[in-house]
Amino acid sequence: MAYKVVLLAGDGTGPEVMREGVKILKVVQEAFGASFELLPYPCGGQYYLETGEEWPAEAFQSCKTADAILLGAVGHPDARLPNGDLAGAGVVFGLRFGLDLYANVRPVKLYPGVRHKVHEEFREVWRPGLVDFVVVRENTEGLYTPARGFLSRGGTTELAVDSRVITRKGAERAVRFAFELAVRRGGAPKDRKHRVTCVDKSNVTAGDQLFRKVFDEVAAKYPQVERDYAYIDAFTQWIVRSPEQYDVCVAPNEFGDIATDLAAVLQGGMGVAAGGNIGDAHAMFEPIHGSTPKHAGQDKVNPVAMILAVEMMLDWLGDRKGDRKLTAAAKGVESAVAAVLREGKVLTYDLGGTAKCSEVGTEIAKRVAAKT
Ligand code: IPM
Ligand code: MG
Predict the structure, then answer these.
(1) In a 3-state reduction of DSSP, which class is residue 199?
(2) pLDDT for the residue 155
(3) Whose CA is nearest to atom 9 of ligand 1?
(4) pTM score, two decimals?
């Protein structure tokens, strides 16, 4: 039976990286005996400029019945909704909120041979294995709760309000996801201890006090996992100074959003950072870099983030369907990516190479096919 995978390539460099993701899926079909029915739909800011909609209604329907969803990127510089919001973001939030994808899972891993980007000119290779943690970002509430607005526009009394909602249910399921993940992982690079860090601002906000209280309640059920706490401001400092102490970190929505862009710097940049938006019944996987319009159409950007999103999808689907072929395929894709990065011969510009997006995709696909 073929697994149905919805493809939402979207804007800017989204279609270019999606092409490479599809290249990998096709090779996975042959090399691992998996079968996919690919269902592409247009979406995003460009589509909005052409049609007045962010995506066709049937795309969301299709996502509801699909086995998994892959998203490229959304966002076009000229495409704004009448209320000023970015056109295309409705696709991302339509999926996250509409399919209840409550855990945004963002691995932060520096592969051997890849240089961190703490400074673009001073590019050291860090000791391999130093950076290997996962941020679980709560994905359905927090500051992203769509309860916001302008009380008055213009003038000196102009005022805008965003409501930051933290619920017991929202916090609990994200925290539980983080602990379940920690149990399955190999621990933090520093000491191999299973550890979950609660990242919040509970020294100030009520929502974060609830988040931390729920964290402690859930943690009590996982005595084999160490509890750790960090205020978000200090956390941004510590992940740069000593990333090796982190294993799994869980944070409310907006803190997880900000921390993972910073964390991408530790893993070689946004070109290698992937994420999964995971719920109990559905999941969507994406590179987290966005549409980067200035590079669009040049076959230039790094497809590794998209390919690692495909890897996460295969792993999730393998687990969910009890399909070992997919689990093996996920491992195969990760080793292929790791081999290409380690050898350092076929890399895009962001990692110091001269290869095109499609060349890196082809090189990784070759390794997946050869199972090396
Ligand atoms: C991300 C992005 C999105 C977010 C934007 C595009 C709405 O920054 O996935 O991290 O803030 O969630
Ligand atoms: Mg972000």
Answers:
(1) strand
(2) 81
(3) 288
(4) 0.96
